[in-house]
Amino acid sequence: MEQWSWPPSYDESYRPEIAQRFWFPRRETMPAEQRDEAILERIRQVMEYAWNNAPFYRRKWDEAGIHPSSIRSLEDFEKVPVVRKEELRADQAEHEPFGSYLAAPPSEVKHINGTSGTTGRPTAFGINERDWRSVANAHARVMWAMGIRPDDTVLVASPLSLYWGSWGAYIGAERLGARVFPFGAGTPGQTARTVRWMKQMGVTVFYGTPSYALHLAEVARDEGFDPAGLGLRALFFSGEPGASVPAIRSRIVDAFDAQVYDSGSMAEVSPWMHLGAGANEPGVLCWQDLVYTEVCDPGTYQRVDYGCEGTPVYTTLERTSQPMIRLLSGDLTRWEAPSADRGRTYPFLPRGIYGRIDDMFTVRGENVYPSAIDDVVMAADGYGGEHRIVISRESAMDTLAVQVEYKDVPESSVDSWAGGIADRLRSVLGIGARVVPVEHQTFDRTEFKARRVVDDRDLLRRLENTP
């Protein structure tokens, strides 16, 4: 396959002809079984490398009775124990600053990214120059599949901070040869300025979160601009579900009159665009030659059959500084078999990553995912742009309420409008939900990832346990 070597090395001068559909034609379209043979060999190389250079993995596999030489098939690889995020955090706490799963000399680390640490100990990503370039080349490939070309101007509209997403989009666009506009987000008044700069700079491609794109469309209208007239021809997203959720996707398409592409997995396994759309449609491909993805049963961590739902488990195939080998995501998806009809012969996630197992909540015995509520609410005519999902408890009974902003709905019709949404939610969720209409602009907008679920039951439990 083109540029298939270990450790990874790319020809930085290479770029396909503008009209070429594929960055690496053979690698992206070959029979999946042939690619799997090469992936198996690469997995063995990565495991051998980690065994020799990362004490974290040697300890873990020793305890499990696993040695890289024992992996003779992808089925054998399923016996390798999964790695959990909490293990990585604990290992970094014991082996600062990058953990004992750093497989390159600390002196080679030239870039530091990581998590913010707002919900616990932050996780540091130590990235050597080889990995930085590998991520850039990988993201350029996926962005090329999205139709992004060197004559585009790409707006990176998420914070340029520790967040890997912004930098991954930046270096991918840069490697592809596009003009990169790292405007970022997060300061007061920034979004209104973004709108004007987009017009001034001739931005053609947007990167950010779906929530921020919808917020940008609202601000553009408030500033007297039609979002569809900003000149965007494509938007690609990561960071949260949405770009493959029909109602959210439709709102973005309608607002900007542009093509929409989903992408994104976990920062720990960058290149995170290894889950990335290859066409202007919902869903993402699993670019298996970049990060090997298994959709697994959440209990056994063995692969589920195509057509089934499970949680992704990721193995990086090009990382040398902090390789991730069977990292458990905790996300939720459903996968389909590779098909040449999609152009690229990778497995396909038709709804992308549509939730996290730990985001699921149970109300009166029914499992509910926030994205299912988002899809119903945001598809409603008159939806005002934001909503909140509130789970509470009355006596021993859980209750579900959805506060929904409305706009351009006559006051005399608001109750019936809310009742229609409640009926659709009951049909989709299998339980009743009280829909509470609230005025437009009731809720704050986000310039990053939306947090819409409020579970008051936790507070009630704490109060009940207080002496």
TrEMBL record:
Q: Which UniProt keywords apply?
A: Ligase
Q: Indicate the segments forming the AMP-dependent synthetase/ligase domain, all copies.
A: 104-275
Q: Which domain of life is it from?
A: Bacteria
A single MF term (Gene Ontology): ligase activity
Respond yes or no to whether keyword Ligase is given for this record.
yes
Question: Does this entry carry the keyword Cell division?
Answer: no
The family database entries (Gene3D superfamilies) matched by this protein are listed as: 3.30.300.30, N-terminal domain of ligase-like
Q: Which residues form the AMP-dependent ligase C-terminal domain?
A: 365-457
- PANTHER family xref list: BLR5969 PROTEIN (PTHR43845)
This chain's protein is named Phenylacetate-CoA ligase
Species of origin: Prauserella rugosa
